[in-house]
Amino acid sequence: MKSKPTLRILREQELRKILTVEKGLEVIEKTYRDYGAGMTQRLSEPTSLFGGSGQKGDAKFKVKGATLMTEGVTGVRLVSDLPNTQGIRAYHLLCVYDDQTGAPIGLIDETWLHRFRTALTGVVTAKFLARPDSKTAVLLGAGAIARELFPALTQSFRLEKIRVVTKHPESSKEFCKLFNEQFEPDFIPYNCPKSAIDEADIVISLTFAANPLILPGMLSPGAFVCSMGETEEVSFSVLNEIDIFVVDELNYAMVLGDISVWLQKQLTTRDEIEQKIDANIGEVIAKKRGLRKNRNQKILAIIQGMAICDLALANYALQSSFEMNLGQDLNVFDWL
User: Fold this and answer.
1) Which residues have CB under 8 Å from 167's CB, separation 6+?
2) How many CB atoms sit inside 10 A of residue 109's CB?
3) What is the pTM of this model?
4) β-pair partners for 88
5) What pairing do the DSSP bridges indicate for beta strands 104-109 and 6-10?
6) pLDDT tens track for 200-254
7) How far apart are the C-alpha atoms of 68 and 14, rounded to whole Å?
8) pLDDT digits (tens, 9 = 90+) for 250-297
9) Three-state secondary structure along 1-16?
10) How far apart (Å, rounded) are the C-alpha atoms in residues 256 and 237?
11) Integer Cα distance of 111 and 79 in angstroms
């Protein structure tokens, strides 16, 4: 008789013990490389589903799924966003299934893991698209995800200055004070994106900005921009100045972030965007498409997040939890 399927529950405290920055970067890079190399992964169809009214303070819900065929697992992410006076309270869950048996094998509290994954995908993207000798980085937005950029970003580049811009100046000052005590580069608060971006090598944007923050004429030769927010952070006109344009997954980028707003405003069409895209991030890392030809090329990457990366980190943590004796096992199906 087969044993009952056992669901292992992993909470934030266990995930933090398992996932180091070094291992996280390694997993994300491998996942992107596999994605670019071919049919080893699969995203759900459609890539995302949305539910909930989001009206009168009620929650909105998002579902995303993915399969890692090389690992034999499928994952389903369920995210709920609840607006409140402090912003958005989000709850992230990820259920991991064994592809061979169809049984659920892991339930992950992904609230912190999602922030960790988002930050690390930005750093890995920068590693392959920004100039290796980059010295100055700009951070637009200093929320929970931005905090997870470090030490990954400072380990990947020998940065000298990190300029921080937030909606409220006090927030950038607090952020810089905190991180100046922990890391070698100078964290410097700035009041506006324009002055911060001037002559910067790397720009990472993680905001809910009501209007574009990166405008035509701001980027210096050789600059790399990674836009990861949920609104229009980069003005559509900036595309005319970009030499190389990279995305992670176009279908999802069409429903969230810069591209979705450009389409809503009827500034462009999907066909036009597809023609402008030079590669997806997986193709870059898998070396299927070499992009930067010289130091002065300006590069834009729109990275909205792929469930394959969430699943890869969760699956690594799940497998490691057995070796480290972390987590709690739960028998869910009494009828078996």
Assistant:
1) 207, 209
2) 18
3) 0.93
4) 83
5) parallel
6) 999 999 999 999 999 999 999 999 999 999 999 999 999 999 999 999 999 999 9
7) 23
8) 999 999 999 999 999 999 999 999 999 999 999 999 986 667 889 999
9) CCCCCEEEEECHHHHH
10) 18
11) 9
Q: Is 298 exposed, middle or buried (0-12, 13-18, 19+ CB in 10 A)?
A: middle
Contact 115, 106 (CB under 8 A): no
Question: Which residues have C-beta within 8 Å of that of residue 274, sequence separation ≥ 6?
Answer: 250
Cβ-Cβ contacts under 8 Å for 325 (sequence gap 6 or more): none
Q: Which of 82, 74, 81, 79 is nearest to 57 (CA)?
A: 82
**Which residue type does 138 have?**
V
- Return all residues near 181 (Cβ < 8 A) that are at least 6 apart: none
Phi and psi, residue 205, nearest 5°: -115, 125
How far is the C-alpha of 143 from the C-alpha of 115, rounded, in Å?
10
**Beta carbons of 336 and 4 less than 8 angstroms apart:** yes
